[in-house]
Amino acid sequence: MYEAERAAGPPAVGERRPIIEIAGLTKRYASGLDALRSVDLTIREGEIFALLGPNGAGKTTLISIVCGIVNPSGGTVRVAGHDILADFRRTRSLIGLVPQELTTDAFESVRATVTFSRGLFGCKPNPAHIEKVLRDLSLWDKRDAKIVTLSGGMKRRVLIAKALAHEPRVLFLDEPTAGVDVQLRQDMWALVRRLREAGVTVILTTHYIEEAEEMADRVGVIAKGEIILVEEKAELMRKLGRKQLLLVLSEPLDAVPEALEPYHLERSADGTTLTYTYDTQSHRTGITRLLADVSEAGLRYRDLQTRQSSLEDIFVGLIGERRA
């Protein structure tokens, strides 16, 4: 059993306590590169937190510092109230890390290497837990196989099993599904949800925006070593998401009538669709007035559709503003 499964499940959203507290965190490398610039971030117990950012934004550096792999240049990090520098062994025992790289003990069996990982953290042997982890990751049938014989996707599963072997309260997944097949991705999503239900906090970095949109409770965006936004996923999409009304016309249109220019309509290449973009927060969307003016202009439409901007649209827009 995972440690958190012995409790009564995760606390309600309003009752979640901070499990990771980062304040003024900086990292400057010898080359002069400022990988992190005074990062402040609080991650709550039992949530799935997606950390998004382009290559070189500082995602992996941030994770590496929290996990004790890289030393910070300044600031503090506390895990479950313990300082990562003053109480390294305690904080590291609370964390599981699934790195990007496929680094495993090639000639060990799957069960042996996962069992060994548990022992590294001073945990007592627990074959039942190891079996549960391997079964959750569809590795039980491969338990006696040498890792060198496994496919890339199976090796990725082994990395996850190793990270869960010591029953951590926090799990970091650093680009966990990069280069893996669709089936493994779906299996991992299901596993992450089960972990959250058991009270484990999951921090996910990913280039697959749909993963964050599918699973995350909150989203953080990092760019050039700075956290530029942290928001509840639903609230983020409500605040920054655009909504569009698509008017599918009965007859193709060569140009948007002059009377409709104030609406800044986009005409499709074949002239069959007009797209109206509006603010989801506005009390008045202008749709009723638009439809009246469309009819007044002599246009007829055979269908109306709405489309909400995705988290990827929002993310690209935020990064674009930051780079500008």
Could you characterize what this model shows?
The chain has 324 residues and is of the alpha/beta class. The protein folds into two domains: 3-237, P-loop containing nucleotide triphosphate hydrolases (Rossmann fold, 3-Layer(aba) Sandwich); 242-308, Alpha-Beta Plaits. It has ten helices and 14 strands. Strands 6-7-8-3-9-10 form a six-stranded mixed β-sheet, sandwiched between helices. Strands 2-1-4-5 form a four-stranded antiparallel β-sheet. Helix 3 runs parallel beside helix 5. It is elongated, with a radius of gyration of 24 Å. It starts with 17 loop residues before the first strand and ends with a helix. Residues 1-10 have low confidence and may be disordered. InterPro entries: AAA+_ATPase, ABC_transporter-like_ATP-bd, ABC_transporter-like_CS, ABC_transporter_ATP-binding, P-loop_NTPase, YD. Keywords: ATP-binding, Nucleotide-binding, Transport. Pfam families: ABC_tran.
